[in-house]
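Q&A log
Question type: sequence-to-structure
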Amino acid sequence: MTNWTPELQGRDGPLYRAIADALAVDIEEGRLAPGTRLPTHRELAERVGVTVGTVTRAYAEAERRGLIGGEVGRGTYVRHREAPRHLPSLAVEPTDDTLIELGLNWPAPPEGDPATQALRGTLEALQRSAELSEMLAYQPHAGLLSHREAGAAWISRFGHTVQPDQVVVCSGGQHAMEVALQALTRPGDTVLTESLTYPGMKVLASQHHLRLQGVAMDAQGLVPEALEAACRGGAKLLYCLPNLQNPTGSVMPPERRERIAAIVRAQGLTLLEDDAYGLLLEDRPPPLSSLVPESSYFIAGVSKLLAPGLRIGYLAAPRRGAEQLAQSAGLATRMTPPLTAEICARWIHDGTGDALVSRRRQEAQARLALAREVLGEAALRGAHGPTYHLWMELPAPWRSEAFSAQARRHGVSVTPSEVFAVGPAVAPGAVRVCLGAPRTQALLGKGLQRLRDTLAGGPAPLATIV
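Response status: OK
Response body:
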């Protein structure tokens, strides 16, 4: 246990916050290393000359910021580095194969670039459209009625039926998440998520001063008993990804969805369901939102299925719930650009969207088959294809961060489990492997071979890992 004493001189505000601020500075400047055990509440209180309650509040504030974690009987520890407080950089992939990117979850590009070909035709048609000038004017926060109608039609592809007046057109899925959190939460609220969750939610929770609480998962997704137990803490919102969950790739089966939906209803939870990848699955279970429509908000993905550059996402609310979302959307962006919303609407109505999804699905299937060939079934036990990402469990004695660092030195980038872990839980020995970012299947194959060789070579001596 460290003899750490916070430097409080010159700090303004409540004492508990000053202690948390001092802790943050000492961690940032390297005086407290990850894994360091901190003094007990009583010991630190005596050392600083404050009440035990003040230290308890300080540690709670530090835990909310993701700085520390604790377990009953073991003490309080400095956490390993969280995911950055911003989303990963989406820099263009190098033209050579010095570092092959399997860490960014991009949609797999089908041969022939059908999305670009479709865009050429749509732009030509737009030139002759009588409504073209309308695309340059201010529009309602929730989007044009025709665009909300397209959103309702797109959401129906996922198996969820809503009316256009329940739909808000957003600037992509991340914006839809932010709109929902802005409308549905207040600073200090607890949001339940899977114990491993999309890093974008961790970023948003930090920005909105929300406390994320991870709920245990198994191969079928959220564990019902764990969700019931988590509800006892007073949480009101559950965010989850039942289809091709990011990062694990799990697909929640119908029976589990029924149990989770029953808990959502019984506990009075609000559900925020994110379905970025669901249309890649030809045999899809019904969305959780369709089982509890009265208290569910549903994000229907477009970026991973049609084209990320469109920056369109559809957020559906329960009946009479869309107005609050529309006001939230207006606060951030005033409106989603109507030109890209129009392109997306045309693709949804004329069948282009379905054709593009089919091509994305075929490419994902081919890349998953390549991953199975190179890495073997044992490494991909949890794969529910077709998918853009895999959860590769590592054999002992590998640790996630060490494997990621060693793979990078071998010329391939993957994402360690720590990036996805919520709260103080120990991150599992696994990494997320993304199959879509490499431009070609040949480049993907080379990256997967480097990954296989890294795994086969075993961990480097600890002294050489930096």
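Response note: DSSP finds 15 helices and 16 strands in the chain.
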